[in-house]
Amino acid sequence: MSVAGESGGRAQQIRQKAQEMERAAERATDPDERQRLKDKARRLKEQGEQQGGTASGDPRPMA
Q1: What is the mean pLDDT for each group of 10 consecutive residues in the chain (63 residues)?
Q2: Minimal CB count within 10 Å: which of 1, 7, 13, 49?
Q3: Dihedral angle, C-alpha 58, 2, 19, 44, nearest 10 °
Q4: Phi and psi for 59 in degrees, rounded to 5?
């Protein structure tokens, strides 16, 4: 597998983990825990987008 393919797969794994975190945040009853999970999900999403964007040839400029 190419480096780009490996990066794309990793980006997909990161995005899936972010979705899991969001679902956990929705179930959390403690407001602090909910916010912590939401923040972590947001960071993971951003990381997945950065990795996926460079691996997939996404034309959006990287900030």
Answers
A1: 65 91 96 96 89 56 52
A2: 1
A3: -70
A4: -75, -10
